[in-house]
Amino acid sequence: MTENLARRDFLKASAAFAGIAATSAFSCVEIASAAPIAVPTVDKLSIKVLVDSSFDQFFRPKQASGVAITPAPRGADFRKPLHSEWGLSLWLESEAAGSQRTLMLDYGYTPEVLINNMELVGVDPSKIDALIVSHGHYDHFGGLLGFLDKFRDKLPADVKLYAGGEDNFCHRVNATPTKGQFTDFGALDRRQLASQKVTTVLCETPTVIAGHAFTTGKITRRSIERVLPQTWVEFGIKDGLGCNIGHYLPAEMEGKIVPDEHIHEHATCFNVRDMGLVVISSCGHVGIVNSVKQAQEVSGIQKIHAIVGGFHLGPAPADYLKQVVTEIKALEPDVLIPMHCSGLNFVQEATAQMGDKVLVTTTGSRLTFGI
């Protein structure tokens, strides 16, 4: 029954987007297949942290449970430092049976910081096989269009951007202390993606990317976790900008501004041979435990090698934080690697409960799995 309902929802989605794809704003849109995925296995995986919210000049190499972390190489020009800002961008390189793939996950807050750090970390845009955006917050897509302006000619002609779903393109706002007043927090402009000839793939269902990675698809809320106070979201399209509520929300939501539930945030995952799953949550608004359990369910793999990324627990109250860390610990990951919005309070609580399994990174550092 559940499978039939999922298939019916997918067909409804396909019909809805087939209708709007005829317009210029949606001329480069695909819907990911709803068929079950065959989860690929990689022999090695590395993550280079292009942008994170902090930088440690004195960061030292470390290694634990088959994971190595090394600092960024020292640049030849002391006048050109790595920059940190609120946001996240990760460069993912994997190897399987002699084949290499390169994916870029999220793009930080500004193209200036992203492009500066790409040069200093030493990554080559011409090696990119696919692009991924985790969710519709500006600190994760803000650098994307500037990145495309500079490097589009180096990317594959048919390059695709994998997004969790239509919700990624909604307009978002921040609430101000004055009731009923909002400040703009932007929207990812699909019209500009189309003008750059970038095809957007909406991955509400699990999707294999470049034959090496897979996404979770829409994440089921099944743990004690809740979406902590954050942005508000406006449903609807104005002059081609915004999101089509289509099949996933009732028509009366059109034009409403409501608290953000991050309906289509997704996680990016790898199955590392003999190690298990590496689950990368860029922000984890829908819950990091929910994200990991979704990865386990769609892959059929229970072993968790690493949980990586932003967990959005900085604003969490102490009692709730303790509960979430307890649930993370029960997942028995080999390592836990918090970044970006996870919060110092999370790092302290996680270290108290999980000890040396908690590894901290910095902007420019490189993580290697399957060493």
From TrEMBL:
Domain (Metallo-beta-lactamase): residue spans on this chain: 102-155
Entry's Gene Ontology molecular function annotations: transferase activity
Protein name: 7,8-dihydropterin-6-yl-methyl-4-(Beta-D-ribofuranosyl)aminobenzene 5'-phosphate synthase
Pfam families tied to this protein: Lactamase_B (PF00753)
PANTHER family from the UniProt entry: METALLO-BETA-LACTAMASE SUPERFAMILY PROTEIN, METALLO-BETA-LACTAMASE SUPERFAMILY PROTEIN (AFU_ORTHOLOGUE AFUA_3G07630)
CDD domains: DHPS-like_MBL-fold
Source organism: Bradyrhizobium lablabi
InterPro entries: DHPS-like_MBL-fold, Metallo-B-lactamas, Metallo-beta-lactamase_dom, RibonucZ/Hydroxyglut_hydro, TAT_signal
